[in-house]
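Supplementary Methods, section 5.1.

A reviewer requested that the exact input to the structure prediction be made available. We therefore reproduce it here, unchanged from the version used in the analyses.
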Amino acid sequence: MKRTIEVNDMLEERVECAKEETKDAIVEYITDNELSKPETQEELESLIEDIEALCDIQDKVNYNGRIDEIIDGCVPIYTYDIKTAFFLHGGELEDAYEIAGFGDNPLENNGMTAIYCYISQELNNDMDEVIAEAKEEIIETLKKENADLPS
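The structure derived from this sequence is encoded token-by-token as follows.
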């Protein structure tokens, strides 16, 4: 007897969600901690250069565990979603778990730990791109908000 089962593969959507939320957290951090109000175009240009030169943003944003919280929030909690992820991506999840060095049982914590490791790994692989998008968003907003500044 043949059976056809349809499942929703949500793992990559969860990774993309983590990237988007991390970008938003970076934008929030830079806006709250690194920006000043420019009064001239020259000050605006200097501020933009400072934003482009910012480094260690990931560490600053995650200082209080914000990125870790984002990743944790993207890990599925329902058994169906976890089992679906393992059915479709078991090898990748096991590899991410092994690389993270948490132990030898990727099904620990019902498999949620391995999924956390995978999302974290994928986010970290693309972190430069996420940071660049956040900086670009801030710079575009600054340019729009300050278009009428004197020279």
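The radius of gyration is 20 Å. These observations are discussed further in the main text.
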